[in-house]
Specification:
Radius of gyration: 18 Å
Helix content: 10-25%
Strand content: 15-25%
Number of strands: 14
Strand order of the largest sheet: 5-6-7-8-12-9
Number of helices: 6
Length: 302
């Protein structure tokens, strides 16, 4: 399952405070009701000592769905680039961070699992540089200087290849929270960054980085196949890739207060899996703090 949660706050440690007060139970109750074996959560504030992650696991256990294993890592959000990336003549603002955020760790990611995580076989790919995806995936006209490109990561939040030992064998959980392809200028830096992140995953699975093992690519890709902002060729090349199957029928996975509804959250399973069922879980509409709906797929080992 993948779920872009409402587990982010406006300042550091506020999520931990709310978890201690049990003020975040709407989204966690939803997860417990759906009872996934493995879930990739987006928009979860990260703290160095992983207090929030531990409290989330504790609350889920209290709600009757224990997920004792986890993987998380520091996201790129809120880390100051030292440059004026949005060219507004001011430094140190959220859009000048390596990934947009008000503070370090805001809106990170968290994988929870009923099964053990193979830490040594898992990879944090978040440090990959944007420039390494090629000049065609960067804003034109030397928008970024060489000094900026030396520090600017491709992934605004993060990208992980997490190996989990299930009763049927190991599975690679590939997960990301891609850049929002909006809130920029004519250079389309955010749209290009989103497209480059999607291209990164296509190349990653093609180059056998997962050694032909079963895998699932899931998370918030922040791009709809036909509507909204974002460069569609990169997304559709991923959704239609011969190594992947896209079992969730097209429908919105997120609703904004403006009335905009888009499909931006995905689960793409490798071809070696059979699919028992797949769904955008809209039965809990309005029950949680997130504008996104959980998306789940029930796979069968073949």
């Amino acid at each position: 399952m993948t779920f872009h949660t409402g587990l982010s706050r406006d300042g550091p440690a506020l999520l931990v405070r709310d978890l201690l007060r049990e003020e975040t139970l709407e989204d966690l109750s939803l997860i417990a009701k759906l009872a996934p074996d493995i879930v990739a959560l987006q928009n979860v504030d990260f703290d160095h000592d992983q207090y929030a992650a531990s409290l989330i696991q504790e609350r889920l256990r209290e709600l009757g769905h224990a997920m004792p294993h986890r993987f998380t890592a520091r996201p790129n959000t809120g880390i100051d680039s030292g440059f004026d990336l949005d060219r507004n003549q001011r430094l140190g603002e959220p859009r000048d961070m390596l990934g947009y955020a008000e503070f370090a760790g805001q809106g990170g990611m968290l994988i929870l699992s009923r099964f053990p995580v193979r830490e040594r076989q898992s990879k944090d790919l978040s440090a990959a540089l944007w420039r390494d995806e090629g000049a065609q995936n960067l804003p034109a006209g030397n928008y970024f200087s060489n000094q900026e490109l030396d520090v600017l990561p491709l992934h605004s939040v993060g990208a992980w290849d997490v190996q989990i030992e299930t009763p049927d064998g190991p599975i690679h959980v590939l997960t990301t929270h891609a850049s929002t392809p909006a809130f920029d200028g004519p250079e389309d830096r955010n749209g290009l960054r989103n497209a480059a992140q999607l291209t990164f995953w296509r190349r990653y699975i093609e180059q056998s980085k997962i050694n032909n093992a079963p895998f699932v690519l899931l998370g918030t890709l922040n791009n709809d196949p036909t509507a909204g902002e974002g460069l569609k060729p990169a997304l559709n090349a991923l959704l239609g890739h011969e190594l992947l199957q896209n079992p969730v029928r097209p429908e919105p996975t997120a609703l904004w207060s403006s009335g905009l509804s888009l499909q931006v959250d995905y689960i793409l399973a490798s071809r070696g899996f059979g699919i028992r069922a797949a769904k955008v879980e809209r039965a809990f509409d309005g029950a949680g703090a997130s504008r996104h709906f959980p998306v789940w797929v029930d796979v069968i080992w073949q």
